[in-house]
Design a protein that fits this description.
By secondary structure, the chain is mainly α. It folds into 2 domains: about 75-340, no CATH class; about 345-540, no CATH class. The chain is about 60% helix and about 5% strand. The chain has helices at about 10-15, 20-35, 35-45, 65-70, 85-95, 100-115, 125-135, 135-155, 165-180, 190-195, 195-210, 220-240, 245-250, 255-260, 270-275, 315-320, 345-365, 370-375, 375-385, 390-415, 425-455, 455-460, 465-475, 485-510, 515-535; strands at about 80, 265-270, 325-330. It has a 3-stranded antiparallel β-sheet with strand order 1-3-2, with no helix packed on it. The longest helix is centred in the C-terminal third of the chain and has 31 residues, at about 425-455. Residues about 1-60 and about 60-75 have low confidence and may be disordered. The structure holds iron/sulfur cluster (2 copies). One iron/sulfur cluster binds next to α16.
Length: about 550
């Protein structure tokens, strides 16, 4: 249903002059079906951040009980548990400063981290940089905590990370400024909206990591943060679309979109009947679009029609503006539309295909023998062309050659089993099937990194630049902190999780790609065996 339109039934009634009758009869129908106690219980059950009363004249046409009777099993309410129903959550949601205050705090933190890393690491040797990345606050925070936490949060709670992202705030400020001064702007082109620049920027980031070690050099990491802020600012000034940076430029966009699909924690409507009867549609209304707080969806989504991976960044503005408090966030049933498994979009599938290579590279790096075996190909290639630095051969191997070899194998096997299916369909289906396992393998590396780096946190508090700590570690006057959890234990846990998710993925594939089930399951089984074998080396490391 389009934003601002009435449901078809209401429109017809309005046309035939029965709208008035409906408006008069609906409240009485509601009151007849509800005792005072049940009406009070219903009011107390409301999750509206503004709480009761429901605005006069806006009362939904049907009670949830009536819905259940009218559509047995068809329109079950999605939530098993709604976090926004708790009193503390309601109190937080009522604050105009939520989530803005968190974004401002995150912005201040990122600015401090950027300044801290500026000019550091430019003269250190390659060996020293391996230690400095953990002793400097900037590299420790960005690569040791921020990035891994983003993966973990995506898997557990979708794009909740985006709620506090300072880049969205910068993009929004630029957007508001451009609108206020009448700055001429353009529309985002189709390929930008399709996420291809997001993918390209992610690959560029991987190349910068592999070729220039920006993840080890605090100064380069600061530069990266400045570039990201510049992109967020520039996107707001250049493009008319709200959240243009999140939609078309954020290098983490593909990762968040794919990994955030599988969690049962979703934003969804509490009662489909209330949205069907809602006339104001405040959550999508144009009049609410540019308010400071309680805005209609700034991502231009329909919150009452959530889909998996639809780009919702969990800003909770729709939950704030809904006059019935009909939006919640929490554990939703598997049949809810927000959890319905769908085919990956092409840029998401491209991300999964490439991710198999760089995640394998990261997983293998944890075990010395495995790492040497993994690098046999780039070593051989460098032997053939020694003028090109090994780092570039390494990137060529894990970003292109390895994914290419793996996915040609998967697509080829799928093609043998399902002959007439086009190659593009096979690859999309195979990536869709494989995505949850790739996500957990990526999380395995993130968990290992956090475990290994967490001990450095007290050290960066006293020495944020990390140079003194580096000196003490180099001269052995300070012992390097031990990992919090051993790699073998992390390996076992992740292996178990991968097997569990692989089993789930077997069934999810049927819902996501019923027409190319063979390809989806071939992709799923291949990456399960691939990452399972790599992770099996962790317990024996
Ligand atoms: S979420 Fe709220 S504002 Fe949006 S359609 Fe449903 S009841 Fe109306
Ligand atoms: S659907 Fe709601 S939470 Fe998601 S982006 Fe739109 S307003 Fe924010």
């Amino acid at each position: 249903m389009k934003a601002g339109r009435k449901p078809a039934g209401q429109k017809d009634l309005a046309r035939s002059g029965q709208a008035t009758i409906q408006e008069q009869t609906v409240p009485s129908a509601v009151s007849q079906s509800m005792t005072p106690d049940s009406a009070r219980a219903r009011r107390e059950d409301s999750d509206s951040p503004d709480a009761d009363p429901i605005p006069p004249g806006r009362k939904p046409a049907r009670t949830p009980q009536e819905d259940d009777r009218r559509e047995p099993g068809g329109a079950r309410r999605p939530f098993l548990w709604n976090l926004l129903g708790s009193r503390p959550a309601k109190a937080i949601l009522r604050q105009p400063a939520f989530p803005l205050a968190l974004q401002v705090a995150a912005l201040a933190g990122i600015v401090a981290v950027t300044i801290n890393g500026w000019g550091i690491g430019l003269t250190e040797s390659t060996d020293d940089l391996m230690t400095l990345r953990k002793t400097n606050l900037t590299t420790l925070f960005v690569w040791g905590f921020w990035w891994p936490a983003m993966i973990a949060v995506a898997l557990l709670a979708g794009r909740l990370w985006c709620s506090v992202c300072p880049m969205e705030l910068v993009n929004r400020l630029a957007d508001a400024l451009a609108r206020r001064i009448g700055w001429p702007r353009t529309k985002m082109t189709g390929w930008l909206k399709a996420g291809w620049l997001i993918m390209a920027l992610y690959v560029v980031l991987q190349l910068l990591v592999a070729g220039f070690s920006i993840h080890r050099m605090p100064h380069y990491t600061s530069n990266l943060l400045i570039v990201l802020f510049g992109l967020a600012l520039g996107a707001g000034l250049v493009f008319r679309e709200p959240r243009s940076f999140c939609k078309g430029l954020c290098p983490a966009g593909a990762l968040l979109s794919v990994y955030g699909r599988y969690t049962p924690l979703q934003l969804d409507i509490r009662d489909p009947g209330v949205c069907e009867s809602c006339r104001s549609k405040d959550c999508v209304a144009q009049k609410n679009r540019y308010r400071f707080d309680k805005r209609s969806c700034p991502s231009l989504l329909q919150p009452f029609n959530r889909q998996q991976s639809d780009g919702c960044v969990l800003c909770f503005q729709c939950a704030k503006v809904c006059p019935y408090g009909n939006l919640g966030f929490g554990l939703v049933r598997r049949e809810a539309s927000s959890r319905r498994h769908r085919l990956l979009r092409p840029f998401e599938a491209a991300f999964v295909l490439i991710a198999t290579g760089f995640v394998a590279h990261e997983v293998a790096a944890e075990v010395k023998g495995l790492d040497e075996t993994f690098h046999a190909v780039p070593s051989a290639l460098q032997g053939l062309a020694p003028l090109i630095d090994f780092a570039w051969w390494e990137a060529f191997w894990f970003l292109l050659l390895l994914p290419l070899a793996l996915w040609i194998l998967v697509a080829g096997a799928s093609r043998l089993l399902a002959r007439r299916t086009p190659w593009k369909t096979l690859l999309l289906a195979a990536a869709t099937g494989a995505a949850p396992v790739v996500a957990v393998a990526h999380f395995a590396k993130a968990a290992a990194k956090v475990s290994a780096w967490l001990g450095f946190l007290p050290l960066v508090v006293t020495d944020p630049a990390g140079l003194e700590t580096l000196q003490r570690l180099s001269t052995h006057t300070l012992q390097a902190p031990s990992p919090l959890v051993g790699l073998p234990l992390i390996g076992w846990i992740m292996l178990f999780w991968i097997l569990l998710l692989s089993r789930q993925g077997w069934f999810w594939s049927r819902q996501a790609v019923p027409d190319s089930l063979t390809a989806a399951r071939t992709g799923l089984v291949t990456v399960t065996v691939f990452f399972g074998t790599l992770l099996l080396s962790w317990p024996w490391s």
